Amino acid sequence: MADGGRPPGQPRVVLGVSGGIAAYKAVEVCRRLVDAGVHVVPVLTRAATRFVGEATFSALASEPVQRSLWDEASPIPHTRLGQQADLVLVAPATADLIGRYAAGLASDLLTATLLATRAPVVLCPAMHTEMWEHPAVQENLRTLGRRGVRVVPPGEGRLAGGDSGAGRLADPATIAAVALEILGVRGEAAGVDLAGHLDLAGHLDLAGRRVVVSAGGTREPLDPVRYLGNRSSGKQGHALAEAAARRGADVTLVTASSLPLSTASPVRRVAVGSAAEMEEALAAVAPQADVVVMAAAVADFRPKAPSDRKLVKEDGVPEVVLEPTPDILAGLATRRPAGQVLVGFAAETHDVLARGWAKLERKGVDLLVVNDVTAPGAGFEHDTNQVVILERGGRVTEVPLRSKDAVADVVFDRVIARLSEGGEERKRP
Ligand code: PMT
Fold first, then answer.
1. Which fold has domain 10-200?
2. What distance in Å separates the CA atoms of residue 298 and residue 275, rounded to the nearest whole number?
3. Pocket test residue of 219, 220, 228, 232 for ligand 1, highest count of atoms within 8 A of CB
4. What residue ranges of the chain are covered by domains with CATH 3.40.50.10300?
5. 240 CB within 6 A, ligand 1
């Protein structure tokens, strides 16, 4: 047996619980880890014990609750806990805990353990929306992200006191699955889609930012059963939304695609059909966004007078008169708030760069991601894409054929560069 009666090779997790209402959900995380064969040592802050009883954790965990730097027989419990851990998981992580950890304070057993460990650390923040969005909290998380700390971002939902919004602790099943994945323990992790939760280290560079992404091909009704559509699957737009969420952004995806998001995704999804619906949905969310990315393939034309009855053969071949749809992107550009970075996409088949530069000007965007949709493996429906990112000011970034996830990350690398330069207001000549 290894230390504490632990079989050799059994992974050991320090489960830190700080003082928020979501502390009761850590009980479920604890149970899931123990059920998966993990040795769990609960470390509660003093505030945590106001929300959940020590006895509950002690009954479920592999060892009794640890709470204080001073009440163990061993004089340096934090060193032992930190050194022996294969993972330190903090759920919930309050704004206070995150702040103390980022500042390098070791004022209680949990923060001392966090500083004393070389094991991977995962924080699962939970707090009220205003606190979650506060620049101090986001800056602290960015600092910790740069140091390799991973974050399972909170979701949206009901919060303490009847409020609702961002800041709700991630689902305990997801938290446990992230921990098991990092520990290499299969089983419970299988079946939980962890895209967006495992490669956060150092990349929370969109934390505190609101990002809106559009995706998919709009459907313009011809009659109640038919529509004019296009070949967009939504894959590129959904990859962009998930990439932004992975990097810590608060993401709204306005999508005309039925493609699913990963099960644990914190992305807020707004389903639309036609260009008009997409325009309305974007008008509601774009004004509050720091970044808007239009990856949707919006129809340029729609039937002028869709029939309210099914068109039937007996009535002969219908004559369909088309009318232009609104240019959503150009409209967003004229109404955008100061500092917002606006990104368009362009699906081209010829004169790709010349048409791209002209489109960047015409639409009034900061960045235009041009894809030659005739190139093998690029554009519609593929899992891969090959793009050139054109920027106001003349910068060009070529992205060779790679996954749509990877393309999305390069797009956000350039978006972040623009954000830190102050966005459109300062870039326009
Ligand atoms: O969805 P996938 O199968 O993954 O394919 C990805 C993609 C090829 C659809 C994507 O990479 C892409 O290129 N999207 C933009 C397609 C497009 O509509 O391009 P465009 O050149 O027609 O339009 C230029 C820009 O104006 C786009 O940002 C578009 O969203 C916007 N637009 C276009 C028409 C319109 N009425 N309103 C708009 O806002």
1. Rossmann fold (3.40.50)
2. 6
3. 232
4. 210-426
5. no
Of all residues in the chain, what percent are helix, strand and coil, respectively (each to 5)?
Answer: 35, 25, 40
Residue minimizing CA distance to atom 13 of ligand 1: 347
Going from the Cα of 344 to the center of ligand 1, the distance in angstroms, rounded, reads 7
| Strand, coil or helix: 164 | strand
- Does the beta carbon of 234 lie inside 6 Å of ligand 1? yes
Tens-digit pLDDT string for the chain (429 aa): 445 556 667 899 999 999 999 999 999 999 999 999 999 999 999 999 999 998 999 899 988 888 887 765 666 676 888 889 999 999 999 999 999 999 999 999 999 999 999 998 999 999 998 898 888 898 888 788 777 788 888 887 777 777 777 789 999 999 998 899 888 776 555 555 555 554 444 456 787 789 999 999 999 999 999 999 999 999 999 999 999 988 878 899 999 999 998 755 678 999 999 999 999 999 999 999 999 999 999 999 999 999 999 999 999 999 999 999 999 999 999 999 999 999 999 999 999 999 999 999 999 999 999 999 999 999 999 999 999 999 999 999 999 998 999 899 999 999 999 987 764 443 333
Q: What fold, for 210-426? A: Rossmann fold (3.40.50)
Q: How far is the CA of 237 from the centre of ligand 1 (A)?
A: 10
pTM listed for this prediction: 0.65
Verify whether residue 230 is a known catalytic residue: yes
The string of DSSP codes covering 68-82 is: -SSSSSSS-HHHHHH
> Tokens 């969005």 identify what position?
133
